[in-house]
Amino acid sequence: MFRTFGFNMKKVVLLFLILAVSATAFSQSIARKWNEEVLHGIRNDFARPVVHARNLFHTSVAMYDAWAVFNNQAAPYFLGSTIDGFTCEFEGFETSEPVSQAQKKSISYAVYRLIKHRFQNSPGKEEIFESIDSLMDELGYDINYTSSNYKNGNPAALGNYVAEQLIAFGLQDGSNEANDYENRFYEPLNKALNLDFVGNSTLEYPNHWQPLKVENWVDQSGNTIPGGQPPFLGPEWGAVVPFSLNENDLKTYSTPEFDYNCYFDPGDPWYIQDYLGIDDPYKWSFAMVSVWSSHLDPTDNVMIDISPASIGNFNSADFPSTFEEYKSFYDYKNGGDPSKGHNKNPVTGNPYQEQLVPRGDYARVLAEFWADGPDSETPPGHWFTILNYVNDQPELIKKFKGTGEVLSDLEWDIKSYFILGGAMHDVAISAWGIKGYYDYVRPVSAVRYMSDQGQSSDPNLPRYNPHGLPLIEDYIELVEEGDPLAGAFNENLHKIKLYAWRGPGEIADPNVDEAGVGWILAEEWFPYQRPSFVTPPFAGYVSGHSTFSRAAAEILTTLTGDPYFPGGMGIFEVKKNEFLVFEQGPSMDMELQWATYRDASDQCSLSRIWGGIHPPIDDIPGREIGEKLGKHAFEFAETYFTKGVAEKGAVYPNPASDFVTILYESEKTLQVSVFDLQGRQVLSQLSDFKQNNKALLNVSALQQGMYFITLQNNVEQNLFTTRLLRN
Fold it and tell me: Minimal CB count within 10 Å: which of 42, 181, 456, 701?
């Protein structure tokens, strides 16, 4: 179990979590303890994914640098570096305290001070501060020690200095933290959709995002938003200083108000076209969201196998790119994707056991589990909890990338948080930069807008309109005379009706009521959400969930050296009538099961369609960006773990029989030469070290024996020489 839930989640689930955590708490590293405090802070703050991706990154940097100062192989990321014009001065650190104690103390003070600053305006700051004060007391540290003069040799002062510098950096990194992250330039094109009324008469630009207004808006962390109409969160986030993103990944779009940075720019989403009906990708895409909401009924007698035997194992190389491929990828009428599952568990060698559950239970559980609803750690934090869950599994062998020596819990946690934190921060910058520029509409706005227009499928039928919903038999139809929805005076005659989840208006008490599925007026369609939280307050394209999840899956795959969860399967237990928050359910006990990290990511992506939050066009580009970004961020972070060695130069493995990696810090292309003992050059190549301080050399053609490897610059100056044994 690796999640906490909202204030309505049943106590038995929380108790299970507490027992699971306490079983491993005795072995938790100091980094793990402080990461849990950051996650606790996020759950008690406003639900702001971009802000908390940044908080997770900066606290991970604080821990990493406070650790790296004492490590001969690694180099700090922030201390002594200049990042986007901000220089963090650092002259080295010496202390008389034992290294393990000094690391523990400096990490603690760094994260403590950063949390105190970043969460000072949180609605739950009293609970947050009480918790971190308690941890400092438990560790025996004086919270009143505030000196940042690290030259005095006190690791506490070093920690305070790291936090002080990160705070100063954060006040000028483009996030507008000083003004509580408010938007400086962005203004929505559309007027707000008031969900106390039916239809959508205020969507003037159907391709663009629309603010939503409800009487009492409550965010995903359970905080009431004054005015009931939250602004777009983070449309200018592409301007924030990234971790690993660079100009090669960037496309900037200039507008009169603002320059929008789009890293890994996917290009335009699908814009609405006149007529065409279901053949218009826009209409096809948003109509599919309403069709999938018809799956949220556990009594429809549709049973599916949700084990890894039937779900997962889809190759990302086969993600769709054309409209025709999208239509083949998603099962429009039944839900799901073309994944075929796994033949067997590679760890046990046995087939995965079938798990048949009602599709309506599965879809609802997915929608709530991956939504991170109330008391949420938000999507980036959710993947930190998954990482912590993985780290707690006894089957996990903590070898970096699955090779080499087993790392201590502290080193493993420090490195994994640094990589994942950097990637989640970059995802927020990439995805929200794209969201801000393309400003794409959400399903609740699009579906209601098209329903107001009519139908776009048949000019011979009533209410034909170029922007109407496509008619789909059994799912999207016209209200005919005699239909119960027509009304006593036929006031709804020829309006559009949907076979879909009937909405929160059918739920008086979510502990005992289910809305169910049935025919509703399309103008009243509602995502599978609470009435106080309809859709996240920012544009849809691209899906943040898809991007965060795929990036995290790539990182966990590379970090562990194994695409599979420890033991061959990750598990989350779901209890009958205890898990769901939006309504009663599920109707039976079940488990969410994932063979691989990528399977979990793909499931997360589908959950947002079932939840009514994203259409398919938001999904796939997000997955593709996440995959590229996750791999890129990992390579970038890894260079810091060996930077101390790279400054001197190294070759491994040594002895070697085929390929060797040459590690050397250089911003230039260098000449790599291999000489035998007679001084004859037997191998030579140009290698570019500036990307990750590494170059690969194929030595398989060499005879067995001793050789010398040399690196030279463009003026033939020897920079590095070492011996190589070819075995």
Answer: 701
